[in-house]
């Protein structure tokens, strides 16, 4: 079965391509290389022994998207990762985000709605919950008006898919990720942030290797156990496996609704200081960090209720925070060596 993975050379995309190929799927990747490189293909080949088909294509080019689907008429499913994800950048350049994340989604769905049936997996984010009132966060927690244009593209994206699925043959699963971290245990693929990382874990590993002087811990006056903000950090390989299970559910027509939503997290919240301590443990290094003020737009805590994903998908995250940090650190060392 042929599966289209958009953004398949990116961080989560590449790990998902590996899991798909390991399960025997034939993969076609679309990527515009805006936040990835073609060398990621070598990493995928090194792990799986198979080279996915790669089409360098920008999904904002509607004609190119149409041509793609003329060329590949036998696609059984689509996993859609291709999108921009930097919160700060989205505030500065909102139209880039609406074009990159929304226009592209519309073009893809326009092609898929012409098919007798289509299975669609969408990369969403726990950012749609904002600061949820109750922890752990279930899928029934209210979706809030996002603070950033990036967050808004995830909320709007979910709505576009729901409206479209209602009146077409498209079946979809929306996956709301908590905080994906880590890299493949083989260190053949991992996260490749461009410029100064905005996310905690790549900033930690870059500080550990000496690329950054010190980590700024954004706030220690949150109402949490140690005062630093709490998130649910999930190993990217666990996350990737959930995509294959979700896709298989649609292909097997096991879905109960045309659109289903699942949280993907570990169910455990970790504070910024706990993540730092985990890094120090697995790397046997002291991390230089300084407590700074809160970062605008940050929430106090977010961790997932995993009950629905456990019970309905039969999926559970297996890696611990230490294992995820260990893989992130090994990856950082490899790419700087
Ligand atoms: C962020 C986005 C979220 C997006 C996700 C994608 C914000 C407000 N949220 O999640 O919408 O889906 O990235 O990857 O940007 N931290 C530090 N120092 C740093 C970096 C981070 O203390 O240098 C802290 C943050 O304050 C936060 C935690 O580490 O408490 C995690 O931050 P980050 O990795 O950026 O993820 P989120 O903010 O949870």
Bound chemical compounds: uridine-diphosphate-N-acetylglucosamine
User: Measured on Cα atoms, how large is the radius of gyration?
Assistant: 19 Å
CATH superfamily of the largest domain: NAD(P)-binding Rossmann-like Domain
Question: SSE order in H/E notation?
Answer: EHEHEHEHHEHEEHEEEHEEHEHH
Strand sequence of the main sheet, in spatial order? 3-2-1-4-5-6-11
- CATH topology of the largest domain, what is it called? Rossmann fold
In CATH, the architecture of the largest domain is: 3-Layer(aba) Sandwich
Report how far apart the termini are.
38 Å
Strand portion: 15-25%
Oligomerization = single chain
Q: What level of helicity do the residues show?
A: 40-55%
- CATH C-level category of the largest domain: Alpha Beta
* Overall outline: globular
Number of strand segments: 13
Domain unit count: 2
The overall pLDDT average reads: 97
Concise summary:
By secondary structure, the protein is an alpha/beta fold.
What characteristics describe this protein?
alpha/beta; UDP-galactose 4-epimerase, domain 1; 11 helices; two-stranded parallel ribbon; 13 strands; 7-stranded parallel sheet; Rossmann fold; 337 residues; binds uridine-diphosphate-N-acetylglucosamine
Question: Can you offer a commentary on this structure?
Answer:
This protein has helices at 11-22, 40-48, 62-71, 87-92, 94-112, 149-166, 200-209, 236-251, 272-283, 307-313, 321-336, and strands at residues 2-6, 26-31, 53-56, 75-80, 118-125, 170-177, 179-181, 215-218, 230-231, 233-235, 259-264, 270-271, 289-292. The protein is α/β, with parallel strands linked by helices. The two termini are 38 Å apart. The strands form four sheets. A seven-stranded parallel sheet has the order 3-2-1-4-5-6-11, sandwiched between helices. The chain has eleven helices and 13 strands. α1 links the parallel β1 and β2 (26-31). It has two domains: 2-180 and 234-264, NAD(P)-binding Rossmann-like Domain (Rossmann fold); 200-231 and 267-336, UDP-galactose 4-epimerase, domain 1. Helices cover 40% and strands 18% of the residues. The structure holds uridine-diphosphate-N-acetylglucosamine (UD1).
């Amino acid at each position: 079965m042929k599966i289209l993975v958009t953004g398949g050379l990116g961080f989560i995309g590449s790990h998902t391509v590996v899991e798909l190929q390991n399960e025997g799927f034939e993969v076609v990747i679309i990527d515009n290389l805006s936040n990835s490189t073609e060398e990621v293909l070598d990493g995928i080949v090194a792990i799986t022994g198979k080279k996915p088909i790669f089409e360098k294509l920008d999904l904002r080019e509607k004609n190119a998207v149409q041509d793609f689907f003329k060329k590949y008429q036998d696609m059984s499913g689509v996993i859609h990762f291709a999108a921009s994800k930097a919160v700060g950048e989205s505030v500065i350049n909102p139209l880039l985000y609406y074009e990159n994340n929304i226009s592209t989604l519309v073009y893809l769905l326009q092609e898929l709605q012409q098919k007798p049936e289509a299975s669609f997996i969408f990369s969403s984010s726990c950012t749609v919950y904002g600061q949820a009132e109750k922890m752990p966060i279930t899928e029934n927690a209210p979706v809030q008006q996002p603070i950033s244009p990036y967050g808004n593209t995830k909320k709007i994206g979910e709505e576009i898919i729901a409206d479209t699925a209602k009146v077409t043959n498209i079946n979809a699963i929306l996956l709301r990720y908590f905080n994906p971290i880590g890299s493949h245990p083989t260190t053949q693929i991992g996260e490749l942030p461009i410029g100064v990382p905005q996310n905690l874990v790549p900033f930690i590993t870059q500080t550990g290797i000496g690329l950054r002087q010190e980590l700024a811990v954004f706030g220690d006056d949150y109402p949490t156990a140690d005062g630093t903000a709490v998130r649910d950090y999930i190993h990217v390989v666990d996350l990737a496996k959930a995509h294959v299970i979700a896709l298989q559910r649609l292909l097997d027509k096991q879905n109960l609704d045309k659109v289903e939503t699942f949280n993907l997290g570990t169910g455990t919240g970790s504070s910024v200081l706990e993540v730092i301590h985990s890094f120090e443990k697995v790397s046997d290094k002291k991390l230089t960090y300084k407590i700074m003020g809160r970062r605008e737009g940050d929430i106090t805590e977010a961790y997932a209720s995993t009950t629905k994903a456990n019970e309905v998908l039969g999926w559970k995250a297996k890696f611990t925070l230490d294992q995820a940090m260990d893989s992130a650190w090994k990856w950082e060392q490899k790419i700087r060596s």
